[in-house]
């Protein structure tokens, strides 16, 4: 995956965090990011896809999360919640992104921005969801590693 896509995920995590906390309009947050952040090395299209896609599919995403998290979805740490929502969105709607990439990118962002062991939580939750939401891909991967 390109660095530009990784940067898009990071920016989307930050923007979705802001959306979750402040409840500002997504378009306003997007405009603010484009004006105030250096987005020159960011895949802007992918940033927009994640930033608009997660809120649009929030009910579906949170329903999937609710089945595997160990607390109410709204009680998950806000950074971790933003990363989990991005991960579930990518599992469900960005089928061109391999599930291993989705998990790895979320774990790496959690290591940098999340709580001390947040990356372990992210890894566990997304691993469970990958087996459900990307079952064919996961079983194909498991079969090829034997």
Architecture overview:
The chain is an all-alpha fold and about 150 residues long. The chain has one domain: NusB-like (N-utilizing Substance Protein B Homolog, Chain A), CATH 1.10.940.10. It is about 75% helix and about 0% strand. It contains eight helices and no strands. Helix 1 packs across helix 2, helix 5 packs antiparallel against helix 6 and helix 7 crosses helix 8. The longest helix is centred in the N-terminal third of the chain and has 20 residues. The model has no long low-confidence stretch (mean pLDDT about 95).
List keywords for this structure.
single chain, 146 residues, mainly alpha, N-utilizing Substance Protein B Homolog, Chain A, globular
How is this fold's topology laid out?
Elements: H1 3-22, H2 26-36, H3 44-56, H4 58-66, H5 78-93, H6 99-113, H7 118-133, H8 135-144
Helix pairs in contact: 1-2, 1-3, 1-5, 4-5, 5-6, 5-7, 6-7, 7-8
């Amino acid at each position: 995956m390109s660095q530009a896509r990784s940067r898009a995920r990071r920016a989307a995590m930050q923007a979705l965090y802001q959306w979750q906390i402040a409840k500002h309009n997504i378009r306003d947050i997007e405009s603010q990011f484009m004006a105030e952040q250096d987005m020159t090395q960011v895949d802007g299209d992918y940033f927009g896809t994640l930033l608009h896609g997660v809120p649009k599919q929030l009910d579906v995403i949170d329903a999937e999360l609710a089945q595997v998290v160990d607390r109410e979805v709204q009680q998950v740490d806000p950074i971790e919640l933003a990363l989990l929502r991005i991960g579930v969105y990518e599992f469900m709607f960005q089928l061109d992104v391999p599930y291993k990439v989705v998990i790895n990118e979320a774990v790496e962002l959690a290591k940098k921005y999340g709580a001390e062991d947040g990356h372990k939580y992210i890894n566990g939750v997304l691993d469970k969801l990958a087996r459900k939401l990307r079952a064919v891909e996961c079983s194909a991967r498991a079969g090829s590693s034997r």
